[in-house]
Input
Amino acid sequence: MTELAATMQRCLEGLGRVRGQIHRVIVGQEAVVELTLLALLCEGHVLLEGVPGLGKTKLVRALGASLDLSFARVQFTPDLMPADVLGTSMVGQRERGGFDLRFERGPIFANLILADEINRASPKTQAALLEAMQEQAVTVRGERHELPRPFLVLATQNPLEMEGTYPLPEAQIDRFLFKILVPYPSEEELVSIIERTVGPEEPCCQAVLTAGEVQALQHGVREVVVPPHVAEYAARLILATQPEHVSASPRVRRFVRYGAGPRGAQALVLAGKANALVQGRFNVGLEDVRKLIAPALRHRVALNFDGLSEGIRVDDLLAEVVDHVPVDKKPVGI
Amino acid sequence: MKAAALSMLLTRAGRNLNRILVSIHVARAMAWTGTVAGIAVLAARFFGLRDALTAWIALTALGGLIGFAVGRARRLDRPETARWLDRHLGTGEALSAALICLARGCAGSFDAAIVERAEVLSAPGTKIGWPMRFLLHRAATAVIVMAVFAPAIGLWSHGLGAPCTAALPGASPVQDRPGRPSGPKKASRALELPPQVVAQAMFPYDKELALQAEQALRAGDAELLNELIMQARRGMEEELARAQSPEERRRIQAEQERRQSIIRGTQSSSGNEDRDEESTDGRPAPAGGGEGRDGREQEPEGRPGKSGMASMASRREAGGRPQDGIGLTENGDLDDIYPRPPGPGSGTKGGGTPGTGRGNARGSQGRTAEKTGGDRVLIAPREDDSVLEYVLPGKGARVPLVQVVPDSRRAAEGALGHAFVPAEYADSVRWYFLALSRETAATPPKEVQP
Output
C-alpha cells in the first residue's frame, strides 16, 4: 500500500471520529451529516434547506468545532452589505505616525463559513459571495485577497418564509456542491434531543481532525480513479435532465425549465469520488454516482410553471432520470 | 505490477462469455432466418419450388453463419469483460478500475491499492454465474423453429400437395388477368402458339389462305381474317357442289362446320365485350390492352386463348405493341379462340379523370382578416372578464388568448429566473400565468369582441 493510501486510512479514521463528535450534538440526521462531510472532502459548498429548529446551524457549528478549523457565522439580513461579509478598508494609524488605509478582513476569512438564512440578504450581498465561493479569493478595492484553505461555505435557508426573501440566482446556486434537505427528526430522535438538550450540561464537540488532515483527504479525493464508463454514465445522467436533449424523458421535457450543466457533472463525479473514499474504495462505482444524484443536482434542475403547479418534486424527477438512463452506452448483449 | 489472478479471471471470463455470446448470436440468427426462410420456402414451394427442404436448410445454415460472424465481431474485450464481471460480482467497478491502473503502469497514487483489491476479488475460487439463461432462451427458440418448419417443409416436399408442374414442350401457360375473377384451373391452361401454326391449323388445305391468315394474325387484322374465313367457306361450298363421293362431301361439311364455329365464336365475343364493359361498372379500367407485354398475359381465365384480332387492334390503337403470340387452348382447339375485348378504360368510355372532390374552394380558413394588422391587438377570452383582458399593440385584429399565453409564460419564466424579483412578486407573476394557462386550457380558442 502506498504512503498516500496509508495516510488516507489514517485520515478516514479521523473522519470517523469527526462523525462521532457531531453526533454527540446532532441527534439523527445521518444522511445530512454524511453529505456535509462529503462536501468537506470535496471542498464544496453546501446549501442546507429546512424549516427552523432542525439543527442546521447547530450542525455547522458542531462541524466547525470538531475540526481544527476557524469558523465564522454571518447572519444574512436584507440590510447586510457586501463589506460586512468581505471586509472593508479602515483608516489606521501608522507606527511611525500618520494614517493609512488598512483592509480589515471580514468574516469570510475563515475556513468554515455559516451563511445563515442566505436568501434574506439582498442580491448585491449574495453576489459578493460568488467570487469567494468559486475562486477562494476576494477582491476589495482592486486588491485580491486569498482565503484560507480549506474554505467551505455552509449556507442555510428556510423554504417556508418566502416573504422578504431573495431567492438565490441560478449563477450562485450552481456554485453549491450539494443542496441538502434537512428532514424532521423521528420520535426516538426527538426524545433523544430532549434528553440531551434540556439538562444542565449541553454536549459540545472537540477538535479531532486537523486542517492538514482535511487537506490530505481533499487531495486524496482527487486521486480516486473514475473508470471511463462511470464518467460516461454521469454525463448521460446530466444530459437526461436537460429538457431539450434527446435523452430526456417525457416528464423532464414537460416539467423542467432548465437542467444541470457541466458544473453539475463535476459535482456528481467529485462527490462520487468522495463517497468511494469514505467507503474505503479508491475507485468510483456506478452506485456512488446514483446515490448522490439528488443532493448534487436537485438545485441545478429548475421546474417550469407546469411543474410547480403540478407539485412535481425535483427529487422524483431525478429518480426517474436514474431509471430512464441506461447504464451502458453500448450493451454487451448478455 | 503483476495481477495474475485478475488476468486469469478476465481471460477465463472473456473466453466463456464470448462463447456464450457467439452461441446466442448463432441461435438468434438461426431462429430468425429459419422462420423467415421457412415461410418464404413454403410460399415458394406453393409456386413450384423443388427441393424446398434443402433450400430451407441452406438458408438457415447461412443465417447461422451470419450470426456466428456477428457474434465474433461483437466479442467482448477485456474492459467489457471487466465491466460485466463488476456488474455480476458487485465489486463496485473495482476490476474496471484495476484494468485502467494496469494500463497506465500503476502511476496513480491509489493504483497499487486498487490492483491489490482487484486481485483479492479475483481469487481463483471466485464463482461466476454465467448467463446461460439468455443462451437457453435463444437456443430454445431456435429449436422450436427447427421443430416446426423442418417437418412441415419435408412433408410438403415429399408427401402432400406437390403441385403438378407438367407442361407441354414449347408452350407457356397463359396467366390470369389481374383484377378479374378466376375461372376453373383447367380453363387457364391456354397456350401460346405462333401465328403460323394457327394459320396452318385454320387453313390446312390452302397454303395461300394460310399465309394470308398468318399475316392477318400478325397484323391483328380481324376483318381480314374474317374475310379469309368467309372466302374459304365460299370455296368449300363450291367444292361441296362439285364433290362426287359421299366421303369427300362429309369431309367438306365437317370443315365447313368447324370454320362456321370459328365465325360464331368471333361474333359471340363481341357480345362478351359489352358484358365486360358493363361489369366494370364505370370504374377506371387498367390501361386497356396497351399495357400487356405480349398480348396474352391479360387473358381472362374463363376464355383461354381468346386473344383475338379485335383485342390486338384495340391494343395497337392504345399504344400497345402487337406481338407474335395469340392465345390457344392447351389442346389446340380453335373452337376456343375468341378475340380479346378492348380494355374498358381505353377511349372515351374510361370515365375521364376522376375529380378529387376538393376543388379550389377553401372556405374562409386562411383568409386574411380585414382587420389584421395595424397598431392595436385586443386579446380577451371573454367580454365580461376584465381581469384577463389584455391589450397589446395592434389594430382591430383579435388573437385568441391561447396563442399568446405560452410565449408570454416562457418569457415570464425566463425573466423571473434572471432578475432579482422578491419571492412574493415572483409568486404573483407565476400564479397569474398559471391562471391564464388554465383559462386558455378550459375555454376553446375563439375570437371575441372587445
